[in-house]
Amino acid sequence: MNEHTRATLQATFDASNQGRLHFGEVVGRLMEVQVESYHVDYRAGRATCYLPDGATLDLGFDRSRPEDIPDAFDAAAVRAAILGAQQGRVMYPEFKRLSQRAGCTGYTVWIAGRHVTYFGRKGETHTEPFPD
Asked: CA triplet 114, 115, 116: central angle to 5 degrees?
């Protein structure tokens, strides 16, 4: 991975975590450096970006506490958080809180596949296509 790609990923990750970029902006920046997908693990406090050549980059953030993510996965509440983000009412710091409260342990953004899969503690999933 070249330094430009690494710097772009870090800057994008930082800006998103600070609530300065919307999801669409994040995806656009990652597409510019050919990221195929990325996985966010709230419990491990890690996001991993995957490039087509097999290169990866792990970026850390504050881990969630066990009490932040309930056992029950509420797909409707996850969907509501997604809708808020799509409408620009919810930035990433709030999205993290809302999705965790809905029982989401993490998610994978499939940029090449144009959808996101959200995961619960017991293997539950919700898949959300990118808006057109």
From this structure: 145
